[in-house]
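Components:
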Amino acid sequence: MFRAVVRLSTSGVRSLARIRPCYSAPLASRCCSHAKVETDEEFDARWVTYFSKPDIDAWELKEGMNTLIGYDLVPEPKILDSALRACRRLNDLASAIRILEAVKDKSGPHKDIYPYLIQELQPTLIELGISTPEDLGMDKL
Amino acid sequence: MLHLTTGRVGCLLSKQAVVALTGSGARMSSHGHHEVSDSVDMSQPMYWDRLDTPLPDRPWKDVLDSTDKSLKQKEKGPWTALSKEEKIALYRLKFNHTYPEMKRPSHEWKTVIGGMFIFFGITGLVVFWQGHYVYPPQPHTFGEEWQAKQIQRMLDMRINPIEGFSAQWDYKNKQWK
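Structure:
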């Protein structure tokens, strides 16, 4: 099969960690590069801020989402929450559903990630009126 | 105008995208432009169905009729007011295939294996015909009598007497060991 699904290295549902290029201790003396390593929290905060821009436009949403899906990780619920709210500001329900499909696909063989994400996003989904692909029967062929 | 034939598109993008583009983008079923040939206009935003790039440059349906337009207007209000069918319709306006549809299995493997066996068969026929019509007659040294005499000569000469040929022959009892 020619699927280009990126292999995921999660260490568990809760942590949703991704491959670290270096040791986590900032004072490790045998670091691979001298660049400052971004922590998971910084990464998440950066992306939440990106999607939280009040006047975000369609291009920025598209670009951000495509880049985020390109990373070797499943985004945290808070990032997805921010992205879904951006879809709401752009009056784009279809993209919101597409995002949910995309993160389900990103989870790959780890079938427990997507239900966790939906569980965490449930308040937002109800508030904004976003139906999951399962609700709409679009998760089947 | 940048035009790209679907053949060249294959070199740039993954096979998946080519299938998607040839299936949908190139023919641009709902696009306003009139595409005569199979070429894709690369100067315009493109649509694609890709697992790793969820949001394409343009929506699937560009040309909206009045029902679509009124639905798009309704989308600007609270989404809780939309029915399931309306939500599905909105999705289908923007996207062609869902993720499960993108990942659907194809029957291509049957074509591939079938084609392989057909070519094996043709090759087999060619080899058989060749054996019958092309090859010259076998040298006389392949005959039964000659081979027997050859083996006897080799044993008489003690070819490889330690570990090889003659070592397998029991000279006392005149038979193979």
